[in-house]
């Protein structure tokens, strides 16, 4: 277990309480209490993080596993996760760590300080570091210190995030964060309330726009398409239209297959035809790159030039081969800039 570290982004309020300013949960925490995420506690009228350096999971992953398809393709990224989340998604694949309440549970972990993280990345031949597996914004203090050291060491940095974070938190880490892979889970408040237990998804959209426009982060969006819940045309077209307008037509959209799990174990896996329809909707609304995920071997994993349709990057599972790019980002056939960073 790590030593307590005073949290960033909070204020003291009446009665010995503290007001956490990290995310839109807007937690007001009494003495001895913890925030919704279960990792930030009020002790003596100050807010502390319990998870600085607390690592629940670590692996050297293909960057495509995040998934990031237009960001340093074919590289390995040192991926680290901790405990907790500010959402409670009913289909979470990493629920053992994301739904854990660190303040109340004795949980297995490894203490890895930021300096050690950089050493591990170098030893493993990683090109960068990703804070992933659970929500990285609740790990702000640790990911911020790690990102500063990573950039100084020539490593790229990634958040794999639900996007439910206040803008001042993004401004803290913005100068040191290269990529923001964000879930756009659906496009109605009703859906977000049911799935993620949050009242309003507008903060997710605002944070994503801020990451892109204020800090020039590389942004890719993912939507896990759940039958009967967010597979309707209105939500899918809403996401695609918003992406084109606010993030630009070159922003990759990953539409991925849902596998029945947890609260939604009685549903059925997303039909491939539904994913292909979502891909077509994305194209119809003006997106240039829409990828089909969780269907190994599907040609929807590949990158094709939106101008001349030449195959540029071939993917089979997490095996990636760059076959048609010049200078990492230009189509070798027609010269179109594909917008790949790295």
What does this structure look like?
About 25% of the residues lie in helices and about 25% in strands. The chain has two domains: about 5-50, no CATH class; about 55-300, TIM Barrel (Alpha-Beta Barrel). It has eight helices and 21 strands. Helix 7 (about 235-245) crosses helix 8 (about 270-285). The chain starts with a strand and ends in an 11-residue tail after the last strand. The chain is an alpha/beta fold. It has an eight-stranded mixed β-sheet with strand order 8-9-11-12-13-14-15-16. The protein has a three-stranded antiparallel β-sheet with strand order 1-6-5, with no helix packed on it. It has a three-stranded antiparallel β-sheet with strand order 2-3-4, with no helix packed on it.
Mean pLDDT comes to: 97
Count up the domains: 2
Strand content: 15-25%
Distance between the termini: 36 Å
Structural class: alpha/beta
Query: In DSSP terms, counting alpha (H) and pi (I) runs of 4 or more, how many helices?
Result: 8
> What strand line-up does the widest sheet have?
8-9-11-12-13-14-15-16
